[in-house]
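Much of our argument rests on the idea that a fold can be written as discrete symbols. The amino acid sequence and the backbone structure tokens for this protein are reproduced below:

___
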Amino acid sequence: MSLLDIYLQKNGKKRYDVFKETGISQQMLSIVNKKSVSSYSVKTIQAIANTVEKSEGTVLDELLQLENENAYFEVFNAEDLLLAFKNKEPYILIKGEYKKEMEELAKSQLSDTETLGLELGSAGLVTVLGEVIIQLVDLFSSKDDDKKKIESQIRKYKFKKLNENEILLYLRQLDY
């Protein structure tokens, strides 16, 4: 889980903002992003605190609380979604206007029962052929690169409508 990204997002910031305001390297922030809060250095906590304009104690308390909650990465646009895919987020919460666009993608996915039936009936061959066809369509498609990346990555996730304003994406492998 990318706890640092989630925390910064909730405070209207990104890792780049921490780098820009404090000089702590983006590589270091990337490494920290993959660790638990207990392994964050004092320097890192101070840098985050300076960026979000809160005390170090408050930042540490909020990070620990987030870690205990297993917070979802919230997405409001394509840029946020691509960042979530890049971070390999297990749970992604789609909110706002972007939810409508994701509902269209959700309609194009087969249900678990339909997928299982196709895979069993074809001895798994349909999965391979389907991927080849998708890659060929993407090759000749006029869609922008971000849209292609999203459509490619979204196949790894299942959709669950939480309410009228939110959709939860979670990795398919978490069901097993």
User: Anything to note?
Assistant: The chain has two domains: 3-69, 73-175. The domain at 3-69 is CATH 1.10.260 (434 Repressor (Amino-terminal Domain)). Residues 125-140 form the longest helix (16 residues).
